[in-house]
Each structure stands twice: as structure tokens, then as C-alpha cells.
Amino acid sequence: MLHDFFRWIQETLGATASAESWSQQFRGSLNLWGITEGTHVLTLMVFAGSIWLVDLRLMGVAFKSTPFSKLNDKVLPYTVVSFAVLIVTGIALFLAKPVDYYHNVWFRAKMIFLIIAALNIFWFHVKVQKNEAEWDEADKPPTSARLSGAISLSSWVIVIILGRFIAYNWYDCGKPLPGFVNWFAECASTPSGIVTADAAPPLVFPASGAESSTSQLAQGR
Ligand code: HEM
Prior knowledge:
Elements lengths: L1 H10 L10 H6 L4 H27 L9 H29 L1 H5 L2 H22 L5 H4 L7 H23 L13 H6 L28 H6 L3
The structure holds protoporphyrin IX containing FE.
């Protein structure tokens, strides 16, 4: 169902007899896509840089002589504003190729870790921060605070790595992939369907100059 919805956005929404869909226009724009991705990546520096300061303090690794609340109050506005920009630019980038990203294993994994990071923030606010006054000035905050800091730091590192990998097409639907990858990316709902390692045709390397079967596969032919 989501596949069909994203396909409609990608191919139909905004399209007229003389113009491509908004998605296609955005993707093919001279500068707009580039500016959006550039903003996503540059804002990410502010976001990661600010949240990691707080995470390291929470973990009792750095800035131990500064009370947690003091550091958090100074840094939080940068984190919140940059996070909002990341979400807006991220959704805009997604809308450039929603079907492709929807079936992209890296994008899916990135969304899972974004949810883990968000749940950790929720847990921190609801549980860990409740008795903040007791450990605010402690060199080494309690285990729950250190754990929350470690989960935050590692999940954002993973989100960044997965975000970078979205651009690579190694696991795109239609390639000869292991069944679990096709399952994870829901490749069966794409026009080219599931292609598992078993079902894939043997790779034949033609004489030089001819188009290789791998490149034909990559193009879904
Ligand atoms: C804190 C949150 C986020 C972080 C840390 C993050 C990180 C990244 C990174 C590192 C890249 C790769 C940039 C590059 O080098 O090309 C990227 C690209 C991208 N991100 Fe995010 N992102 C975040 C939120 C989101 C959200 C919420 C969405 C969508 C719902 C999103 C969608 C995308 C898309 C579509 C790309 C482009 C991939 C491509 O085609 O190259 N991001 N992100």
C-alpha cells in the first residue's frame, strides 16, 4: 500500500501533459536538490556536534567539572533547531525518490535507528532525568544516565553511517540478493519482483565492449 502511495507521489503528483511530477522536477533540478542535501549534511554537523557534547557529559567521559544542566541548557537550542532542519530536509530529500528510498535497505535501517534514538530520548526525559538534581554535578552520572548517553551517541553514529550508505545501490531490488534482503526491502512489491541468489540467472561476462550482464541487471533488464 505504501509502495503504491509513494509511486503515485514519485510519478504522478503534480504531473501535467507538459510537465513531470514534482518529485521528478525536484530530483532533476539544477540546484534545489543539491542545496537540500547540502543543508541536510551541513546541519548534521551542528546536530551531531552538539548532541555528542551532552552524550559525553552524560557518560561521564568529558566536561566532568561542568554540571550537566549547565552544559545541556547551553547546547540544547543548537540540537533542537538543527534536528528540526534535518527532519525537514530529510523528508524533502525522501520526496525526491520516495519509491527508491522506501525499498532501500540503508534507508530502512536508518529509520529503525532514528526510532531507537527517539525512544532513548523519550526514556531519558521520562525516567532518567527525573532525579537529575541528584547527579547534576557528579563526575560520573548514574548507570541509567551513562547508558542513555551511550545509546544516544552510538545510535546517531549509526544513523550517520547508514545515511551515507543510502547512495550506494549494492542492495537495490532486482539484483541477485539473499532472500532476507529482499524481505527486508519488500522487493516483491517492486515491478521487477524478488530476485533471490538462487533464482538469479548466472552472470556471464561478455567480450569487452559489450554491455555486461551485471550492468543489465543493475538497470533491471
Ligand atoms: C538526525 C537525523 C538524521 C541524520 C543524522 C541523517 C544523516 C544523513 C546522512 C549522513 C546522509 C548522507 C549524506 C551524504 O553524504 O550524501 C543523509 C542523507 C539522506 N537522508 Fe538523512 N539524516 C537524518 C534524518 C533524516 C530523515 C528524518 C529523513 C527522511 C525521512 C532523511 C532522509 C535522507 C535522504 C533521503 C538522504 C539522501 C540519500 C541519498 O540519496 O544520497 N534523513 N542523511
